[in-house]
Structure prediction request, 718 residues.
Amino acid sequence: MGVTIAFWLLAIMCIISALAVVLGRNIFRAALLLALLFFSVAGLYIILNADFLAAVQVLIYVGAVAILVLLAIMLTRDVTAGGALNKFRLPALIFSLLLVMALVYSVLSTPWQISPQAPLETTTAALGEKLFGEGGFILPVEVAAVLLLASALGAIVLVKEKDGKWKSG
Amino acid sequence: MVSAGLALSLWSGEVATAFNGMLVLDGPALFFKFLFVVSAGLVILSSADYVRRFQRFQGEYYALILLSATGMMLMAATRELLSIYVSLELTSISLYVLAGFLKDEKSSEAGLKYLLLGAIASAVLLYGMALVFGITGTTSLAAIAERISALSLSGLAGTPALLMGVILIVAGLGFKIASVPFQMWVPDVYEGAPTPVTAYLSVASKAAGFAVLMRVFFTAFGPPLEIGASWGLLLAVLSLLTMTVGNVAAIAQTNIKRMLGYSSISHAGYLIVGVAAMGLGSAADVWSRSSVLFFLASYTFANLGAFTAIIAISNKTGSDEISDFSGMAKRAPVLTLGMSLCLLSLLGLPPTAGLIAKVYIFNAAVHQGLMWLVVAAVINSVISAFYYMRVVRIMWLGTPSSEEKVPSSGALRAALVISCLGVLLLGILPGVFIRLAEAAVKMFAS
Amino acid sequence: MEIGLTHFLTLSAVLFGIGLFGALTKRHAIAILMCIEIMLNAVNISMVAFSRWVAPVDLTGQVFAIFIIVVAAAEAAVGLAIVMSIYRARQSVEVDKADLLKG
Prediction:
């Protein structure tokens, strides 16, 4: 029963904050609501027995991405311009609605193979084993390391001024 | 170049795997690795003049090109959804930065647009992967194929989620190969990005997309399964839309980079013809797969050659407008000759590789009963003659705006000569290379 | 009513649609990036829900979600860096001239 209430609460929070991000006029407020959305998703992960992932979600999304977005908004000083929508409003709305309907239909009418096994209680150790252990996902871990190098390199190249000085404000 | 030689020497070798079978070294993987090494090498050669425009970060420029080439090689060699996704993002993120490398208004905007649409496309791709994972409970392509056949599905209609997953994966990968519905980034990004990066995007990034498309669809949803016919038809329709959109829009262009952008969209359309034939054919049908490989090789050389010539000419004139190429035959005869040859190959005239590639890929499609698609593709090729020949005519018959010669560095000329040699070699001695491509796809490890 | 797989999947589909609509219609580059983050979170909800019900002990879905988070963070960093460089070039981050849907 508790799970049911928690799910509906979090789901409603997710959808309301997502709608507010998309439809809101003030981009600063939208960024804060995005952080709320990230928090609700972390709550959903806890319902789904993904405790480690919930922690990662809070640390990276709320702690890093949301802050990064806020910083970028402040640095570009374009706080109020975030509300405007372009002229593709109607086709985009129709397309998105159709896609959602198709997705919901296909999700509801597919016979999913539900596994009878109970989920793990704590996932951290098992995830570590899955990532680095025998038969695990060590290849993507290594590729992701190179990816982070590439993105750090790229971000520095792009943000540094042409004359080599750091951009201020 | 050393690694290219190494790759060639491995050509006839055994199929090898690493990382619990996540990474595989088979024929197609080797072929694509070789293609990426060659195109990255040619792009680096042709950048030699261009990098002077960046006051700083010339080293980082080459580093990012090599990093994205690494990502592409991994894309061609992994057979597991998670690794494919991560290597695809390694490629993309490096390319986003490269597209915005000039940091002026146009280039930054190209980088931004490329990144935003690329991120949307990868979200779509991920949703498709999530649905496929939900149905099969695994991310390994071979295991996905086993599960799907174990479910004994009669076509995609039995599980709509699988159909949605396949559609979303096609749409997401469509961004990399620049097919409809994710083609709208192409002209703006091609125009704004530094020209060597544009060349790289149009060739290597597209080939990497096809490498993943072929591996995912051949290994996971491939011909032994009955769903092959469903996505084969889906791709056939997509291919018709893509080539028509590309060709019709290309006619009206006045900027040569935009024109080649639309032309690369239409070439994505021709290439999808081969992938669609792969879906409709049986697993033993070698032609459809090897024809895609051969077409990619021929397209790579022709497009890189054309862009190399453009880099040299627009370095001098400072403009990418087609009208400024007027009379280039008098100012830069060698560059013009090379560029004309490459444009003729893109159009598909003898004695170039383009003709053989088109005949080969259309032949594979006819064998799978896609006659209507081939007729449409031939009509499209005729339309494309219009804009390719216009450029060739302006360059040879137009009046030059000045008598000044166009200078070019040795590295750039070397890149152009290698490309043209590739175009001619594939065109005059196609048998050798077709046999190589066929040998490569026979080694498709499942 | 027991909360099951389909509840989460439906929520994920709706969030994905909202994010897609925003990403296609917003004009502010940072707002588009935020909408893309919504889409990626929607995908993650699906992944983790599949992991919970389809392969509960295997955890592959959760591993996938971790990688999506990592890549999304890297992408956001590069995206915001490009936004900074475009802002410096013309003092605005509207994507008006380059409307995303215009070819």
Remarks:
- The beta strands of chain B are 16-18, 23-25.
- The radius of gyration of chain B is 21 Å.
- Chain B has one domain: 2-11+22-442.
- The first helix of chain B runs from residue 2 to 9.
